[in-house]
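Protocol step 4 of 6: structure prediction from sequence.
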Amino acid sequence: MGRISNKDAKSSFEDSFKRATSPMMTLLLLNEKPMYVYNLSQELEKRSNSTYKMNFLYPVLYRLQEQGYVSEYSQEITESHRTRNYYTITDKGREYLRYMLEKYRELLRAVDVVIENGIQDEKAEGA
């Protein structure tokens, strides 16, 4: 079995975190207003000061659509009949978003407790 480099481990952690939270982040933005993919991506990047970039939004949106949390519609945006696909959250999606936010906060609190206990243990050992 090969060793994972420090860089790969950091990237893997970040990728896993984004993969786990991307449906929640997507639904949060769509809860405000319908958006198209580029708009979603730019808004997320802007609000996170370029920290949270998602390069895989389409699979997230397709999965949310399949689960009934998001719906899609096309809107004509030019006189030449060019259309843009917008995504909007459904009532079922709002319900799921509330659940995810509750679980996210619960898990975050639990992780914070474990971290704080670990820091206290470290300080006690160093004293």
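Step 5 (inspection) to follow. The chain has a mean pLDDT of 89.
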